[in-house]
Amino acid sequence: MEVINAIGRRKAAVARVYVSEGKGNITINKRPLEEYFTLPTLQYIVKQPLELLGVTGQYDIKVNLDGGGFKGQAEALRLGIARALVEINAEDKAKLRAAGFVTRDPREVERKKPGQPKARKRFQFSKR
Fold first, then answer.
1. Three state DSSP letters for the chain
2. CATH fold of 4-99
3. What pTM was estimated for this model as a whole?
């Protein structure tokens, strides 16, 4: 099997994922998963599509992660891994879609407007 690549995005985070056959190692920006994402919840988010399909120890995953915060990066990586797994085996798409791993979350930060303290917050109105 050659290297399969996919892209996952979430908020400002972009994950370029390269999947090849191996022993289950996940390397993010040349660091192991446990070192990059120290929180167990984030590690769980990243591994969700692999555990759903039961292929945790079958593939080596190399990732270039850029932008965003750690939660957005973890979710971008989850989407990238799910897309790569669909490219490897198209029959898995229904399972991954049912779990919500194939859908790109479109929510982005709303821009701050001029004359306002934040995107939607207004300055206090004074009648007199």
1. CCCEEEEEEECCEEEEEEEEECCCCEEECCEEHHHHCCCHHHHHHHHHHHHHHCCCCCEEEEEEEECCCHHHHHHHHHHHHHHHHHHHCHHHHHHHHHHCCCCCCCCCCCCCCCCCCCCCCCCCCCCC
2. Ribosomal Protein S5; domain 2 (3.30.230)
3. 0.90
